[in-house]
Amino acid sequence: MKDAYYFPHDSNARSDPKVMALIKKYGIEGYGRFWVVIEMLRDQQGYQLKMCQYVTNALAMAMLCEEQEAAAYIDDCINKFELFASDGEYFWSESLRRRMSQKDAKREKRAEAGKKGAQARWGNKPDKQGSNGKVIAMPCDTNGKNGKVEESKEEDSKVNNSKQQQYDRNSDLESNSEEILAAADEWTKVDKVFTRLTGMPIPSPRDVEAMKHAVAMADGRTDLIIEVMEACHKNYKPAYPGAKIRSFKYFVPAIQEAVATVRVRAPSTEDKLSDEEKAKIQKLTKELTELLPDELKEVIDGG
Question: What is the pLDDT of residue 74?
Fold first, then answer.
């Protein structure tokens, strides 16, 4: 997952001569569009955007204007106002890159300092290491300074129980962390296919939520979800010239049907589900259905 969506922003940015020239031609709306583009650049790998048709389409949607106007605006920002730089294939903001480079460097230093602090604290003590490579701190030794303090059997029992409980808690944390990371990785696979099929580089928050629900409903079967998405895209018939798939919700009904079909074909697996698991599936299905437009809800409900 990406880190927090943040970047430094000078309060007097509008006083920059380049920005003032931009405002003179495009008005305060042009100033707002400039920050829309900066925010999009912040979210991309390398803080740059590719100069291609689908990015122009996304920029037009974000700036609420026509594609030709969006393309002309970016061209002016590059060639007239020198607010963006470009190599002909990508464009970026030198100012944003410089600021983010400083921020990333500070983050790396803090991470390195944290590692050194952990090493200094634990030294060469044998620590439990999780499957993801992260060290899990084990309970401190409860014996005396030299380990020579004798304890009663009752006290030894309490210490051993405490150690076991702490170990169990650490194991649970490790397991939960791995499950969370795995779930995050699975929905991003769906996101990449969604971007490739629709040409939309940045999905909406509602689409992201729908993707996560779909992965959970399919029990992590991203291969099934992607197969359904590919088939839907292949069979898509535009309602009018130039129409495109612009939301993940378009794929949801077909995904629901495919998941249901797979479960019908494997009744032995379905029978092994607990009541709690079945209730969870029903809840996820209901939440996915609520994301659909009313007309699609009627189709799914049979009415």
Answer: 95
